[in-house]
Amino acid sequence: MPVEQKEGKVVLTHPKGASAEILLYGATVISWKSGNKISSTPVERLFVSSKAAVDGSKAVRGGIPVVFPNFGAPAHPEHAKLSQHGFARSAVWTFDSIVMDNEAGVSVRLTLTPTPDIMVQYFRPFHLAYVVTLAEHQLSTDLHVKNTSQTTSTPPDALEFQALLHTYIRAPTSEVLVYPLSGGKYYDKTESTEEARSQPKEETRTGVDVKKFTDSVYENAPGKYQVIWPGGGLEIKAKNFKDVVVWNPSQEAGSKLADMEEGGWERFVCVEPGYVRGFARLNPGETWVGQQVLTPLDGDRPLAL
Ligand SMILES: O=P(O)(O)OC[C@H]1O[C@@H](O)[C@H](O)[C@@H](O)[C@@H]1O
């Protein structure tokens, strides 16, 4: 069965062996197993902490949580009641449909509209659709945001939001490098004062490492990244996610996360395409689509982490 629904999750299986699992809780992709052009054996590409809650009690520590409508602590007055990274990653989404089911890809759509719980914290009408497509050697995740307001006021009843795919890539943290961010502007959230956090820095490293606590928001980033370690790597392509966040808590911050497994920070890098500097804006009836495509790089070998 290429698409199976069981116990709060959707499992996609590609005829050539790749698979993906998506929790309805948060529409969180919690597993993506894929081979590559050289080795067809599917291997896990995403990191999920063994201490992560996968029962819907807390956003998942790993996989690909969906961040919407705010990134980090709320900065927009309309988001004031929301918690860090918004409600999409901790709301139960609805299985909508199978979009495609053939050798080119197995694809499903999940949706989220305001629930009573969301409406207590957030008044804007919206419709989110998340399309996850599994190909032989690729995983695409597309987030569609629609402003469903019927109001015809002037100025328009705009939906202003941030969105990000918080992708935890399984990789040896001490060796992984992210390209090409050199020359770009970033905001360093590990700085201790608000003033230092709001001053842009210029990236001078050809390949960005995460050997120490890293929480960097690259603004207007290139949209195509290589995440490379000795013997392996992935490409991430992003559309309409103009920014990218590179995060690894290291032991310093990782050991304080209750749902992070011991040493888990040594086994991943988060490379997170997003629209997080400023706000995307939709007038009533308009839709915005952000896309992420993950592909193992040629020469990639399975990781024993
Ligand atoms: O612990 P959370 O809420 O899942 O967030 C993890 C991290 O997510 C990153 O995207 C943020 O830039 C970090 O500041 C944050 O610590």
UniProtKB/TrEMBL annotation:
Gene3D superfamilies noted in UniProt: 2.70.98.10
Family in the record: Belongs to the glucose-6-phosphate 1-epimerase family.
Catalyzed reaction equations: alpha-D-glucose 6-phosphate = beta-D-glucose 6-phosphate
SUPFAM superfamilies: Galactose mutarotase-like
Name assigned to this protein: Glucose-6-phosphate 1-epimerase
Active site: 166, 272
InterPro entries for this protein: Aldose_1/G6P_1-epimerase, G6P_1-epimerase, Gal_mutarotase_sf_dom, GH-type_carb-bd
Species of provenance: Heliocybe sulcata
GO biological processes: carbohydrate metabolic process
MF annotations from Gene Ontology: carbohydrate binding; glucose-6-phosphate 1-epimerase activity
